[in-house]
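Please discuss these two lines.
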Amino acid sequence: MKKAILPILLIIYIIGDMVLKQQGVELCSSTGCEMAGELLKFDSRYLNYLGALGALTLAFLAFLKLDKLFTWLAATMVIFESLLIASQINLNPEVCKFCLGVYALLWLILLTANRKVALYATAPALAVFAAFTILSIPQNRSLISSDGLYLISSKTCPHCKKTKEFLDSKNIEYKTIKSSDLNAFYFAKSLNIKQIPIAIIAKGKEYKIVVGDRDIIEHFNTKSQAQSNQTSTQASPVEQYKPKLNLSGNDDGCSFSVIKESDCDAQEPTK
């Protein structure tokens, strides 16, 4: 049966990838593919089993000459794969070449089965790509691009304003990261940090994180004092302030939100 040829090729293609993975060779090496897998409620490796099962079902339907079921199953698989490809494109610029191969084969299967249905399937497939483009989904990018001080803050947070005023008064350079940035939100969430401002001090491969206006100001005051003492005398170095994560939710910062600007109910920070 001619219709069964392409599904069989798809089975061989998917099983080939599974065999290569067992040998430590990755065809699906894109970071975007791994991140797209994080959206699933199950291990992403099972996608290969699911794809092979779908292709096997297509071949079986082709042998039984169940053309309508064959066509609609192929259309369903095309739309599902559209979701995976669209998520990869938006999460990471690099798209998995293996997944693109699966996608191309599925479209070819659908086109050879029924061009009219393939044309109808184009609309929901394009809608999927459009939806991922419109949605504010965090991309795979680094918050920290070079050494220095980074401050996750909000324009309306009084604790953030206090911190910025202090840093400006000390001529301390820093780069601002908006608290509305979803990458910043997920970074903070991974550390169970629930308030801003958050200072990230990057130097080489070392990072220090200080949370809350009090701790940030204390850290840089102590650091400045230590540098001053070392410059003026040759005495033993002053013990450096050790930054800590302030997760208590006291009045050192505003609650972290990506939905609206944090303003702590417009309350001024405690002095």
The radius of gyration is 27 Å. The first helix runs from residue 2 to 22.
